[in-house]
UniProtKB/TrEMBL annotation:
Family as reported in the entry's similarity comment: Belongs to the diphosphomevalonate decarboxylase family.
Protein name per UniProt: diphosphomevalonate decarboxylase
Lineage: Bacteria, Bacillati, Actinomycetota, Actinomycetes, Micrococcales
The organism of origin for this protein: Brachybacterium fresconis
Mvd1 C-terminal domain segment(s): 174-299
SUPFAM superfamilies attached to this UniProt entry: GHMP Kinase, C-terminal domain, Ribosomal protein S5 domain 2-like
Amino acid sequence: MTTATARAHPNIALVKYWGKRDEQLMLPAAGSLSLTLDAYATTTTVSLDASAAEDRFTLGGTTATAGQTEQVVRFLDLVRARADSSAHAVVDSHNEAPTGAGLASSASGFAALAVAAAAAYDLDLDRADLSRLARRGSGSATRSLVAGLGIWHAGDDDASSFAEPIEGPEMSMIIVTVDPGQKKVSSREGMRRTAATSPYYPGWVDSTARSLEEMSAACRAGDFTRVGEITESNALRMHAAIEACEPPIRYLRSASVAVFDAVEQLRARSIEAYATADAGPNVVVIARPADAAAVADHLAGHGDVRIVGAGPGAHLITTEESA
Ligand code: PMV
């Protein structure tokens, strides 16, 4: 029996992924770019069990829901097909993020699962291959294979859609949790509805492809200001496209908008900070590391505030063979 343990961190996109052009292969409508964090890791152990009749999945020490287990089984099926194996597995996963911290545990979760499962089933995959594999579990997981800043090339087939590192300015992220509750509409459903009903969806996809080019150039030039400006406008464009759905979806609440206002106040005082938000009410602010503490102080009244930085890509911790 082979057992492998891997660890991965979530990432926050500066140019967002929102919409698929191929649901089966999980190819995105446009590329995206993110920072992998140094906090809130997921640690996952995959143990093959040749005598088991089915896969088992525990999350935080308790049996996962049927829906969560189904996603993991579907992912393991892909790995088994590649490894030409029929062995079932026991998957045990632990998230360091407090439940409802507003951080996508799907990114760290599927990145850690991809690395641990590939090792347990003895697949010889490089980092780009693992990024492609993680993509099949959750789009944002594609980027958690990369340390620090990573660009996910949209690609036009399985082989060309993966993430790789990109140089950029140093930055901190200030995570402002305004509402620790679960989001009401999943990103999967939100993306489907935006693509199907938002009149702004084509504009979102076109402008994101352009923003990604501009963002890559700003990163390579080490231009923090331009990186921040593109980050904030890309996030607001995503939410504008989402809010124009039918029936509408609003992930941002008034408390979220108040953080965007507070960030604008900081800029008026010459502290450069820029806000972004994923498919939920919590806001992530980017700042130069030297300004992070001042930004966090200014935002303290808006919710739980935590400063994080760039972290490692998903990696294997141990593999073990036992009888
Ligand atoms: O792949 P998912 O289901 O975690 O979707 C990610 C969607 C956003 O977090 C809103 C954007 C992104 O690029 O991470």
